[in-house]
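haha ok so turns out i had the wrong file open the whole time. this is the CORRECT one, sorry everyone. sequence first:
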Amino acid sequence: MNLAFFGRYGVFEYFRIGGLESFNRRLAVGLARLGHQVDFILYGAPTSYVKSADANITLHYLETLSKALQFLVGEKKYDHILTFYLPPTDRLSYLYFRLLHRHQCCFHQIVFNWPDSLFKRKGMFIDARLYPFNGRLLCISPRQFRYARQWCPRSTLLLPPVPESYFIEPDAKPRHEKVQVTYIGRTEAGKGIEDVIQLFTHLKDCPQVNLTIHGFHHKSMPASVKTHEWLSQQQEIRYSYTPFESYSLAVDDNLRQTLKSTDILLLPYRKLSSTIDTPLLLLEGMASLCTIVTRKLGNIPEIYGPGPFLFAEPSEIANMAGQIEVAPSLLDQEQKRIFRQNQLLGFNLNNTVERLVDALSLD
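then structure:
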């Protein structure tokens, strides 16, 4: 199959760190390994150019929406076009484009978010109702899927994919003298970085734990930059920084090794709208058998299961300090529970790509 991943330049970049980026990149890699050709068509770029990303994966950067639409129905014939984001101002033009070309290829939409605002959420799904003339609505969380299938029978649940190399069995999880407690993510309020710093301040003198923050940030977000600068200058909390634009196989491998050696992973989201609706780090941490400290938002309790460190309100995270100090007695049992949960969910990359191919083959 020839597939196009279509969207706005700047919202997604292949060589950038983030849940949306990893989701699309991994799907593309999985499809390419099966012999399918995947092109990323990104419009709104400063200049037009083409770049090879991997075997069977090519990136096409185009300056305008009109040029991108012409490319989609040009000499290269696409069997399926998967759209991951268009700004509201471009959706009407794209809606008309799909209507005109609905007999040439199948158009699909991936829904990544669950907006906080009910108005915006309804607006997002109203757009999606108009979307699949001949394609599928791909939902990445159970709540998206349950909502959408009421009026869109061509909806498919597609949990974010995690490569097989992340998955380990309980006996392979490293054992440490000290509990390894880690935060990974952007240094911004929506991700809960302030709560992490508060918790680490309580734990920094505890001899039973090692604390580490692995952070990155958007340079366009002053508060995130300020937190990064503070973390870089202080000495009490171990801080590791990775530039947002620096994705590579080595960065991915470093994340995998970090998660494998992490006992407790902090993901204290203030709101899920700050990430994709099933957070990829939640699934990556589960694959690596990390016991996760996270808030009961969205489908997190359903996906992760009844963990000992789920909390309801941000103010409760400070109370986790005492529980983390006695965590060694909980870890073995929790790792075995997470391992069983992973088997039930089946979100490894091969399974996810197979589900996608099966869904597309029905059209």
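The mean pLDDT is 89.
again sry for the mixup
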